[in-house]
């Protein structure tokens, strides 16, 4: 069943406008009486029925609130070193599907891509649209935020997660599994992944100073677009989000 996010507080009667209204009427060709799911701005999910459709507007009547949550128990913020080409699009789409709470694009020393000013804003706007589409497709209860492009120092200063880890290819003592088990009950987690060129020694030092724990993701070196998704999957498995 199709799911739409409505930027309004929950009410029994709500209105969908803009691109989503056009998609419902012109692309999906839905009609009054058809059912869909909505998520209001205050996080309420509900089963709704289309009451009527006009040019640019779809009015819905909420039938029942949906109690089941589609959100993981652990809020993961993925701090991803800027990757080149369409890799960032892929990373953000899949991270949202998996359950990331937010994504921070990070300009790192070994990042091939350089973004600033209007170019960075334009990219973030594109990535936010990708996150919204992925959230709809995967039945999320929120649209994860893609934050502005930040430096490593800015990202570390702006984050207040209790548990912080960084995937580092030269780490050979602390595994991801061990770090998670030593952290105990997880509520939120910052996961830092480097770009194609990896994490520099200076960036690793800054992370350590901020209380970030370097971890290994195994014996093989993973690509920038693979590492974060593997780590997130492992975290959700360890915390029971992928089923018993």
Give the tags.
7 helices, seven-stranded parallel beta sheet, Ribosomal Protein L25, Chain P, 244 residues, alpha/beta, Alpha/beta knot, 2 domains, five-stranded mixed beta sheet
Question: What is the fold-level CATH name, i.e. the topology of the largest domain?
Answer: Alpha/beta knot
What is the helix fraction of residues, given as a range? Answer: 25-40%
From the spread of the alpha carbons, the general shape counts as elongated
* Total tally of structural domains: 2
- Total strands: the figure is 12
The fraction of residues in strands falls at 25-35%
Instruction: Please give the radius of gyration in angstroms.
Output: 20 Å
What kind of sheet is the major sheet?
A: 7 strands, parallel
Terminal CA distance: 25 Å
- The SS-based structural class is alpha/beta
CATH architecture designation of the largest domain: 3-Layer(aba) Sandwich
Mean pLDDT metric: 92
By CATH, the superfamily of the largest domain comes out as SPOUT methyltransferase, trefoil knot domain
The unreliable regions are: none
- The helix tally amounts to 7
N-to-C SSE string, H for helix and E for strand: EEHEEEEHEHEEHEHEHEH
User: What's the CATH first level of the largest domain?
Assistant: Alpha Beta
Q: What do you see in this structure?
A:
This protein has two domains: 3-65, Hypothetical PUA domain-like, domain 1 (Ribosomal Protein L25, Chain P, Beta Barrel), CATH 2.40.240.20; 75-238, SPOUT methyltransferase, trefoil knot domain (Alpha/beta knot, 3-Layer(aba) Sandwich), CATH 3.40.1280.10. Helices cover 34% and strands 27% of the residues. It has helices at residues 18-27, 87-98, 117-137, 152-158, 176-183, 201-209, 224-238; strands spanning 3-6, 13-17, 35-40, 45-54, 57-65, 75-81, 102-107, 145-146, 150-151, 163-167, 188-193, 213-215. Strands 6, 7, 8, 9, 10, 11 and 12 form a seven-stranded parallel beta sheet that branches. The two termini are 25 Å apart.
